[in-house]
Amino acid sequence: MASLLEDKSNRLRMTGRGGELVGAYWDELFTARERGAQVVWYNGHALNPLFQAAGISWCHGEAFSARLAAQHLEGPAQLAGEEYGYVNELCSYSRTHLGCAVLTNDFGESETGIVDTVDQRELASRLPEPDFFVNGYQGCSTGQQWDQMSYRILGKKVPIFTLSLPYMFGSKPDAGYLVGEEWETATDYVVDQLEKLIEFLEVQTGRPFDHDKLGEIMSYIKAASQLRREAMALCMAKPAPATYWDWVASIAHINFMPAEQRLIDYFQGVKDEVADRLASGVAGVADERYRLYFDGIMNWNKLGWLARKFADADAAVICGRYTHQNFWQEPQLIDPENPLRGLAQHYLLCSNSQGFKTLKQAMTKDCDDYGIDGVIFHASRTCRAYTNHQHLLARVAENQLGIPTAFFEGDIADAAFYKDEILETRLAALLETIDAKRARN
Fold first, then answer.
1. How many whole angstroms separate alpha carbon 214 and alpha carbon 52?
2. Is the model's pLDDT at 114 over the cut of 70?
3. From CA 328, how far away is CA 332, in angstroms rounded?
4. Please, which residues bridge with residue 407 across strands?
5. What is the pTM for the complete model shown?
6. Range of the domain at 48
7. Cβ burial 36-53 (10 Å sphere, 16+ → b, else e)
8. Who's near 354: CB < 8 A, 6+ residues apart?
9. Mean local confidence (pLDDT), 171-200
10. Domain-located, residue 197
11. How far apart are CA 286 and CA 345, in angstroms?
């Protein structure tokens, strides 16, 4: 394996522009109070279009935890959460954000032990306190309790609304991806839940909800999602002009940032750069020899590190469950004239909410479409909901698709659970297995 000092990854230039947009979003949120804006903290699905239409500033808990981890600034928040009583085996997204709630509430030195650190002053404690909470989780028991815990930390002094979202078991005979009685019944149920959420928002803001604004917002999301999916599809080419790590870097934009023209412009820029690379024969990995599928939520502490490590082994991670099976992945379902139905259906499509039957179909399709040689599973230590199906999916890949697999353990936002030597050994073994298979064929 090549030296890790050599960087053969070739990340998209638009990643830098995207980082500027993300930074501007958080800076604006940090000043919400000065601007007289109401603030909602929420977790789970992409409820931000509803908040944007209602004229509310929003903080997505997982997103802020991921940002802290990506910038290696998660330590003070995680320590504050642990000292408050949350064990380190708890989902590190929630533990980090709960720690932010502790810091935001300013319990003081005697209760947190986290005082006068640069990280605390400059980022982890800068979140404005919420005026209310909204929880939109299914398929994850931690997520369903997360906002209740935040609510308690902040003294039970702000309202909370919890969406009831059904898990899509897919066990009925007619059940399938986007079809069947379960799909239709669940869609109707979630639309009803969203109507109740809108009533809650009207009470909190004291003004009527702007349904026309929501339709406009969803038109931006639909256009941006279409561009994103088209850019991803260009990476079916060999060698791939961009990689999984580029799609990870653009999750924030499609998942929680304001939907407006600059969102479309950003994804148009991403697609144009990918298309230019494809036309010029420029690859996302300089010497692509292996095409891998990545299953698992991203290890945000190690984004750049993992991109370089795989590239240095001539392994192009092309796609994965986290990037390709989430985040407005079916833009044709979005109807700006009837936005609630498209919102509801995308919440049901979250891969964390799907039974094994659907996950199997989705992985099989991606492996076929993108010409995958091997599957690498990131077994996130504190995210059981995402790792539950991984061994079953590994059997499908090996026994039905004839694709070798490998596992490595890490975490979504806690660097302590990642061991580089484990990934080094298992990645090398996976690539040797792919070479042996090629030699036999």
1. 8
2. no
3. 9
4. 377
5. 0.93
6. 14-440
7. ebbbbbbbbbbbbbbbbb
8. 139, 168, 170, 362
9. 96
10. yes
11. 39
